[in-house]
Amino acid sequence: MADSRRVFVQLAGVRGSRVEVGAAVMAFVLPTDSWLSVVNEFLMSCNDDDMEVEQRPPGLLEGCVVLHAATLEQVSDPASCEDSKQYILCMNADDAVRLQRQKFGDSSASSVTGPSDADALARGSIALTDQLESLEELDYYFDDAGTLRHCRTNQAVYELMSDERRAGELDDIVKAAIFHIQMEMLAELAFKQARVPLDLRPDEPKDARSSIFLTSDWRSNANLLVVVNGGRGAQPGIWSRDLLIQEGLELGSMLPVMRRATATNFAVAVLNPSTNNVTIGNDTFPIRGNSSPDEHMLYVWDNIISRAQARNVYFLAYSFGAKSVLTLIQKREEQVVKRVNALVFAEGAYRLDPSTTSPTVAQFLKQRAINFKGDAQISAGGHIPAEEEKLSCSCLSVGDLTASGDGKMPPASASALSKRNSSNKARTISLSLETTFTYFVAARDRGCGAAQFITESEAKTRSWLGNVIRHRLDSLKPRKQSRRLSTAMGANASESPHHRKTARRSSLDTDASSSSAMRASIASSRSSNSSHHSHGVSVSDFDLIKVIGKGSIGKVFLVRKKDTHVVYAMKVLRKKNVVRHGLEEHIKTERLILEEIDHPFIARLRYSFQTKDKLYLVTDYCSGGELFHHMSDDGFSYDLSRFYAAELVLGLEHLHRLKVAYRDLKPENILVEASGHLRITDFGLSKLNVVSDKGAQTLVGSPEYLAPEVYNMQKYGYAVDWWSLGVFLYEMLTGTHPFFDDNREIMVKKIMTPGSVGTMMPAEMPPEAASLICGLLTFNPTERLGSRGAQELRDHPFFAGVSWDALMRREVTPPWHPVVQDELDVGNFDAEFTSEPVVDSVCTHQSMVLSSTFADFTFNPSISDSMRKR
After folding, report:
1. Measured distance CA(77)–CA(66) in Å, rounded
2. High-pLDDT (> 90) share of the chain, %
3. Which pLDDT band, with edges at 50, 70 and 90, does 162 fall under?
4. Surface-to-core class of residue 286, CB atoms within 10 Å of its CB (0-12 exposed, 13-18 middle, 19+ buried)
5. How big is the CA angle at 453 (ends 427 and 712), to the nearest 5 degrees?
6. I need a labelling partner for 39 at 20 to 30 A (CA). Which of 257, 290, 471, 570 fits?
7. Which residue intervals make up region (Disordered) (predicted)?
8. Residue 44 neighbours by CB under 8 Å, 6+ apart
9. So where are the chain's domains?
């Protein structure tokens, strides 16, 4: 089956006397599908609905017109839709004609977008840009490790750098790679593109503008991170052209920084200080308000950042970008000192002149700024006194940057790099990434200044900062080695790049490799089957009875299998929504864990299958609903809380034995059977193959249940689950959360204060329960109860009298069970969901356009068991 193509779509609509287009959204096109299916896919993406073709009003889809965003030419054939290109969906022909006239027939119309970009920025829409060739058109791709390679030969692009004859080709490839990264920013990370200056004057060429990128929450988020690349000739999305080619996405692009920022709840603005003029024909025009990096910085601050609601602004600046930040501080001293909470420079290129700098600015830098710099003489984490005097801020070494390379760059390529004025200084950003965000989070959540952060960090271990930087360096070396070995390991040069690039995104954690490892642990004799309807199991084998849950990527149904009449819960996920939200690895992880686990207190997978557009997970139905549904303001009784806690201990113990860190324990993820027993469910955030107390590092989970080491961005292990159990038990016994506060910063401060739970423990709390909770909520994970195994909890006085073996055999009668009328009763689920109509809400045919399958997703226990016995 042909590969699906990812495109970007904007919905056109009439506003006043003009036709305007909204924000770009991602959609998927299958060249072999009908045109109406493609139009409906575009409409579903723009409206974020689930209506199928036959559900649309008669004539609606037939009347729609699709235009190519760059040319405004009409498109009416699915095969004409190109990967990574941008299109406009007009709801009727008149709107399409008016839109074309606005661009080509009306000299007063300066752009397709219609209104001024100041209005567009307020609405959060993006400019129409589709002028660069894509990587696919140039026959190149980013492989799984982030290395730029040729599709047919699989040759790495850095190997072309020694060939002077291909210098022009190399520039085109780099431009396409930057465009590719910027499309990733728009599609994966929900960035929007704004063009500055915002107000275009009649006497200015319409192209005399530069682009900056903002996350969709830039205006409303209380914490805004401003990223400034001062590298010469750099564009938004990359730190260094040469580093992007030589070392790939992980070191050369901004994507790791952006993912970490969004994961830690920062809005992001990526500036563009190096684009100061444009060439149109033979003439060069300066960009008003942006004719120099310093002018660009001041313009964006005055016209965009200052209008945001962010109480706290943070700066991450590289090289000469730090100089532009210094100019901003000096020119807007009062505003900056009031709003900027923390600054991190990487290889900051400025010198502070005490004779011309106000004492306030100098003191502000000492209190709020940290500069990271490569230094061959000073070990990682050590202070660099000469730089601290020059910059008037703390300056820490990331070690010898030349040692961070793998030494395998061919001599000819190395000389080519030097000819292009390459430097490996941009590596400093990646090496200091962990420390940078640990500081930003500490500044945001605890008001921590630079000097205090460094002092506290160094006090935790002998050289904590150095260890973090060295660990970051070590974590990058295997990635580089894998890139060098990719061809030798037998990569098929003729393989379609689309198959390889589906997993190209680097993540904040190593979930992708963990999924692969666990998949390998499944019996190797089982046949891998990626067909859409394996062994006849499909949605048509089930009667859909009720909607019992709904989320951003799909729904959960109560279903009954037609041949056995057994009732199940069926989770239905749209692949396009999974991809749009970047949840591919989460879904694969959940699927793998559910298949491998057979435990009385953990949800059991019965079937999984897929169509070309949807994923289906069928599990046992727990008619008692979520435990959260039954929690009252007074909590549960002591006996019931102990019973539930004991079952959770057994469930978590089993997961940990399988090297799984659960990472999302909370009442909403615990289901209650009709009998009163519990089932742990929802493994999308779980971490596979955790083999130590430092086997994970991603900040994931529900904020009020996260352990301190997760907020600290430290590596962590199973102890995070025992912390969450402590919070959970407190909540069951009291009906309240020990740390919760509507103000997130206050809540995090409580979590990050060692021993704080002891001060809030109710006087009436039974001593055994208080002792267990305090043990589970111990700040230091190595001292936390359970850190040496679940037996520590089993032996605690709180569980005295619990017969663990009988409980495991489900021979202990639950102290309470929910009210359930019959096996089809949905009274314990939210009426908001159960009242939804079921008819036609699940697609039983293949009309959608996303064709990619999730490898090894299909699961039929009878088939799997027989394959294992062979």
Report:
1. 10
2. 39
3. low
4. middle
5. 75
6. 570
7. 475-536
8. 27, 50, 51
9. 5-115, 191-489, 511-623+831-869, 627-808
Give, in order, the Cα–Cα distances in Å from 603 to each of 557, 672, 724: 16, 10, 19
Spatial CB neighbours of 725, under 8 Å, sequence gap ≥ 6? 645, 648, 649, 652, 665, 776, 786
CA dist 366 and 360 (Å) reads: 10
pLDDT digits (tens, 9 = 90+) for 734-785: 999 999 887 777 888 889 888 888 888 999 999 999 999 999 999 999 999 9
pLDDT at residue 673 tops 90: yes
Peptide bond into 815 cis (omega under 30): no
Indicate the length of the chain as a whole number: 870
Its CATH class, for the domain covering 5-115, is alpha beta
CATH of 511-623+831-869, one of 3.40.190.10, 3.90.78.10, 1.10.460.10, 3.30.200.20: 3.30.200.20
Pairing state between β 614-620 and 605-610: antiparallel
Whole-number Å distance between alpha carbons of 160 and 148: 11
Distance CA 834, CA 286 (A): 60
Q: Which amino acid is at 683?
A: F
Q: How many CB atoms lie within 10 A of CB 66?
A: 22
Burial 329-343 (b: 16+ CB within 10 A, else e): beebeebbeebbbbb
Do 305 and 226 meet the contact criterion of CB atoms below 8 Å apart? yes
Q: What is the assigned CATH class of domain 627-808? A: mainly alpha
Q: Select which of 664, 682, 693, 856 is catalytic.
A: 664
Which of the two residues, 209 and 667, has the higher pLDDT score? 667
Q: Residues 468, 470, 476, 477: what is their CA dihedral angle, to the nearest 10 degrees?
A: -160
- Cα–Cα distance measured from residue 407 to residue 413, given in angstroms and rounded to the nearest whole number: 12
SS (H, E, C) 220-253: CCCEEEEEEECCCCCCCCECCHHHHHHHCHHHHE
Catalytic (active site) residue 283: no
DSSP classification of residue 527: P
DSSP 613: S
| pLDDT of 322 strictly over 50 | yes
Burial of residue 367, with CB atoms counted within 10 A of its CB: 0-12 exposed, 13-18 middle, 19 or more buried? middle
Alpha-carbon gap, residue 541 to 235, rounded angstroms: 53
Strand partners, 192: 214
Return the number of other C-beta atoms located less than 10 Å from residue 803's C-beta: 11
Specify the pairing of strand 277-280 against strand 283-286: antiparallel
Alpha carbons within 13 A on the beta-carbon side of 446? 19
CA proximity to 372, closest of 390, 340, 341, 397:
397
- The token pair at 736 is 């309240």
Cβ–Cβ < 8 Å for 222, 266: no
The β-bridge relationship of strands 542-550 and 394-397 is unpaired
Higher pLDDT, 32 or 188: 32
